Amino acid sequence: MNISYNWLKNYLDIEKTPNELSLILTDIGLEVEAVEKVQSIPGGLEGLVVGEVISAEQHPNADKLRVTKVDVGTGTPLDIVCGAPNCRAGLKVIVATVGTTCHPTVGEPFKITKSKIRGEVSEGMLCGEDEIGLGSSHAGIVELPADAKVGSLVKEFYQMEDDFCFEIGLTPNRADAASHLGVARDLAAYFRSTYILPNVEGFAEPTGASAAAVEVKSTEACPRYSGVHISGVKVGDSPDWLKEKLNTIGIRSINNIVDITNYVLHDLGQPLHAFDAAKIAGDKVVVRLANEGELFKTLDGVERKLSSEDLVIADDTKPMCIAGVFGGEYSGVSESTTDIFLESAYFNSVYVRKTAKRHGLKTDSSFRFERGTDPNITVFALKRAALLIQEIAGGTISSAVTDHYPNPVSPFTFDVDCKSVQRLIGKEIPVQEIKEIILALGIAITSEKDAVFSVEVPAYKVDVTREVDVTEEVLRIYGYNNIELKSQILASLNTQEKPDKEVVLNQVADLLIGNGYREILSNSLTKLAYVDDESTAVRLLNPLSSDLDTMRQNLVYSMLTAMSYNQKRKSSDLKFFEYGKTYHLLEEGYSERQRLVLGVVGNKSKEQWNASNGTVNFYNLKAAVDMIVKRLKVEGLQVVETANADLAYGLDYMKGQKVLVSFGAVAAEALKKADVDGQVYYADFDWDLVIRSIRKNEIKFKEVSKYPAVRRDLALLLDDSITFEQLKNIALKSERKLLKGVSIFDVYKGDKLPEGKKSYALSFTIQDEEKTLNDKQIDSIIQKLIINFEKETGAVVR
Prior knowledge:
alpha+beta; seven-stranded mixed β-sheet; single chain; five-stranded antiparallel β-sheet
């Protein structure tokens, strides 16, 4: 939500600077996410001064140039070369002095420097409209009135005032603050001052004249409906002040009638809608629920099929707009409109929200109606808009105000005990100060006894319905920062199950970050096309969009989406990891599973002149997986080829009968779905199983051996089907005590080997903790390994 600094000044005197005010707004619960300086003319005419041409002589070296002396109020005239045909002595002009940055109507800004033009010194520029953004004319320099004061700022001459736009992250419960009036109310409460409402006393409705007949058929969906008829309007451009107000908060000007409704919406928080009265069939307005399947074309030109739960504003034959959400294509105001019917209503927030979600529409009106508007401001807003229309579009109010309000909304009434307020806040705020804040917030106190107030909360404060809500209101105005922390904090110690999941998670995250990985966070919502099994998918009943209608069953597409996003922004060497949950609907109910996933794509490292580079491969990912397994001391894993459908090939590390981690190359189909370039290598840890696997791990200390380890190598000719894991298990089974490690350092396949054969070069680390091994013992162990390899795999030593 955007709020204008100058606009707020219409409601109350503000002595604080925009930056100071932004801090205050954040303190009282209206978090300011950004403050932006807004100028109606780019550059704001900064640095430009009023000057007077003292003399204008022909340039000695150019027929179309003049050498002028210009008084800018400094006491020393400036020499300026000018080529404008209307440049002459005695003229009051706009001068851009040396160092000024000019912002032209078309093109990039440019800075004025001291220069020589055809041999003559020029110490500035006499400005035309298009050169400083005042207009598009290039006929000559701007001629100011004779009474313009030399040396004064041009921005002051044109009475230009910079504005500042506050971007406020409005929380859903603060519907009362979704306008300049709402923000002003909060500021008035903070400053313990008063705010001034716009004056609508000039509104005069004709006696006996009535607006179009209004019939409200669904008072539940529309508790209040107000309207008035305005005749003789002239639709056209809005005045500059109105355009500037809307431009400051990011609203594009359309025409004077629509601009006024938008202005009142952001001013008072009350959405309005203007109908072309000539297009209301039967001169009758009907507020009703739509017929199931009824077709309606909205302002964006899209024909929509309505539901029987959609509230519409219709005429005698057809819908004219979707109530509180979007107008119709044919019933709105156009250039030919002369008479309008102006609507101001209070719609049920639930109906508006469901309709907006059903049709995928989000407008400024629905934003406010969904959260709850003020049912008691509809007529005031109607009068405010009608007076502005009279002033700007020249219409006349030609009917009395129609106001259907059969069941007025009552204020919320309950008791507030100041002792409870003090207890919840944690500070003994004086009762009198609590009372002052409550009253400053517009909450009435009907009775008071023993520091217990009976309060009436106005209906526009839709989230203040209980004592605790008033406590929150008091606290945010009093100031969270004014609540001191006690020097003594009383707490009880809680036993926690080991291992601490958060500690383990952070340890692994730090390990990955230290190895060049970056953590990503992805939405748990995804599209149905990305799930593994539709029968177990968790679908949303009221999704935000078709791309966010299902809870994810895997993290592979979250990873690939992030990679695709980065690749499209010229970042192609990626190493990501993510902690997240997957969701399934099983026979026994809903299931959430914690996962850790890794993904790599692109080059191993950034290009460097003194080092060769290459693309990542399966073994780079395997090294990261093994690093995590080793760091967590997960033991007893079996290695099998992966059965993961998202992987083209890879391995699974099994813990018993369960897969601890699957890793390998992502299948081409998944890469195509996510629009990712290059081969992605992906690992998926069952994090819940990881935590269970390390639950009984103990820290063990082992003294460093005094005796050296010995390495021996073997080259074996094997069948293609034999894996390194099989050889490793055979070796460790053959020599349990002295064999400390087995690794592979070379693999060869080629035409020099028989068909279906491969060569593995293995290294064996042998060590005795109690003595130094001799050659005879070592040879005995190696011979035993050779015999077992030959016996169990048919290996041949090369």
